[in-house]
Automatic annotation (TrEMBL):
Protein name: 2-C-methyl-D-erythritol 4-phosphate cytidylyltransferase
UniProt keyword list: Isoprene biosynthesis, Nucleotidyltransferase, Transferase
One Pfam family matching this protein: IspD
Record flagged with keyword Iron: no
Pathway entry: Isoprenoid biosynthesis; isopentenyl diphosphate biosynthesis via DXP pathway; isopentenyl diphosphate from 1-deoxy-D-xylulose 5-phosphate: step 2/6
Keyword Nucleotidyltransferase: yes
Domain of life: Bacteria
Catalytic activity entry: 2-C-methyl-D-erythritol 4-phosphate + CTP + H(+) = 4-CDP-2-C-methyl-D-erythritol + diphosphate
Function: Catalyzes the formation of 4-diphosphocytidyl-2-C-methyl-D-erythritol from CTP and 2-C-methyl-D-erythritol 4-phosphate (MEP).
First-tier enzyme category under EC: transferase
Protein source organism: Geomonas diazotrophica
Listed InterPro entries: IspD (IPR001228), IspD/TarI (IPR034683), IspD/TarI_cytidylyltransf_bact (IPR050088), ISPD_synthase_CS (IPR018294)
Length: 231
């Protein structure tokens, strides 16, 4: 049976948050955001091992204040990040130990703490069938294409989805996509875009509008409200 490796990049500097520390370590109801995220992967039966990606200078802090403090036994390693998220993920892919071509890699933003076990399981199931999957939700608003301050197009809303994470891939496929992107100097907006660039199919799995990426102070307000409602 193929195994599933979780790769959680948490190497962003969080400049838009405007906080004194990187956003992944901000406390959300007494627990670091990153720890809340990792906890779901730790508890999910479908996840065999977890790799975190952190700024190199923060690896000791991440190990002591997240991995050791909360007793996460599935975390195998904390990998140094890169200058861009894509570079951080690539570092993580190259650091995975004992991985086979048909094993799955589940890539998830460290600052999306409201991911559910259901999303993990469904993303894995879809990737096992199709080779790649993305958790996403339909857009709620009308989307406009704007060039130089002028609307040039209104795409049909029913065709538009907001990509989230986790994004799941067969290891040989996502590794090849990252290898090719690195060789070409191509930067995509997410990991799925590297597969799309190769013409590979990526299946969509229904996500959740609460599966937000905490990036700004407004996101923290939303996250605290979600937690309050969950209690």
């Amino acid at each position: 049976m193929a195994r599933t490796f979780a790769l959680i990049p948490a190497a962003g500097m969080g400049k838009r948050m405007g906080a004194g520390s990187n956003k992944q370590y901000l406390m959300l109801d007494g627990m670091p955001i990153l720890a809340r995220t990792v906890q779901t992967f730790e508890e999910a039966d479908c996840i065999d091992a977890i790799y975190l990606v952190s700024p190199e200078q923060e690896i000791p802090f991440c190990r002591s204040e997240v991995v050791e403090r909360y007793g996460f036994t599935k975390v195998r390693a904390i990998v140094p990040g890169g200058s861009e998220r894509q570079h951080s993920v690539y570092n993580g892919l190259r650091a995975l130990e004992d991985i086979e071509p048909d094993d799955l890699v589940l890539i998830h933003d460290g600052v999306r703490p409201f991911v559910s076990v259901r999303m993990l399981e469904e993303a894995c199931a879809a990737a096992r069938e199709a080779g790649a999957s993305v958790v996403a939700v339909p857009v709620k608003d009308t989307v406009k294409v704007v060039r130089e301050g002028v609307i040039t197009e209104t795409p049909p809303r029913e065709t538009l989805w907001l990509a989230q994470t986790p994004q799941a891939f067969r290891y040989d496929l996502i590794r090849a996509a990252h290898d090719e992107a690195a060789a070409a100097g191509f930067l995509g907006t997410d990991d799925a875009s590297l597969m799309e660039r190769q013409g590979k199919p990526v299946r969509v799995v229904p996500g959740d509008y609460r599966n937000i990426k905490i990036t700004t102070p407004e996101d923290m307000i939303l996250a605290e409200a979600f937690l309050k409602e969950m209690k």
